[in-house]
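Notebook entry, structure prediction.
Reason for the run: the old model in the group folder had no record of what sequence produced it. Starting over properly, with the input documented here first.
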Amino acid sequence: MANLSVGQELLDVPLPDMVAKLAVGIADAQRSLDTNSVETAVALAGTNIDVVPAITETIAADGSVTFTQAAPIQMSLLQVGLNPTFYQFTEASIEVTMDIKTTTSTETNVKVGVQAKVGFACWSASARVDVSHNRKFGKEVKGTSRLFTKLAPVPPPPRIFPELRIVDNRPAPTP
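New structure, fully documented this time:
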């Protein structure tokens, strides 16, 4: 296995396996996000604070102003409007990129040597030729893979909040 190239290793991973692993990973992450949002909702519902439900401002005939407030009531943080944030994955993609660069170079060296001797009525000459030939091959492979996901906040499920019903048992005003 050590002789496998990076490109071959990337090509050997079947695309259906990559997509399946991405989908399962997103499903696991979505479950974690949903669990976190539900735990936040439970914490908000279990934390109560005092809330003044109404303040009445009264302007008297002489222009003086008085304020009266209703007795504070206990409400959960969820009831006062703090909502957990829910998220969902809106996009996911897998990108595999390979760069392959192959180079070939040839180098040829020729060395020529000539010698000549002159003597009485005869001469001789010799030539020596050295040829060396060198060929080099180079291959460079780079591979990358990238996983991209995008999250977006979504509104909480509508049934997470209780329905608000108001029952007014005050007598009707007399005309």
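Summary: The CA atoms of residues 67 and 105 lie 94 Å apart.
The old model has been moved to the deprecated folder.
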